[in-house]
Amino acid sequence: MKITSSAISLNVANPEASAKFVTEHFGFTEDMSADGFVSLSHPGVGYNLVYLRTGLSSFKPDRIAADAGQGLLVVWVVDAIDDEYARLQSEGVEIVTPIETEPWGERYFQMIDSNGIVYQLVQWMSAEAMS
Asked: Residues in domain VOC (predicted)?
């Protein structure tokens, strides 16, 4: 099998709102859109991020066509987590988990968009940086 591209598709009540969130705060660009559908890309991310309006008849199987947010994290690894934290706070992004560092070196924080999608930025810290 040869995979030529990939995407993550999330059902949300308002695709345009989530698309605006990631374009304004994370540098994604819109590749295409239609009624109830927005597909975005980013040069540093290896997949398209797609938002579909909940209830679209084209979503199959329909028995799982609920909102995406419950238990889902969209995670991106970054180089300067503290700078990103300060930037996003200054932009008024709703931080739901303040920045913290786990004992195994994962330094992260989480934000949420108006559709309830949680985004997490992570930086993996070296042992030297943690001491």
From this structure: 2-124
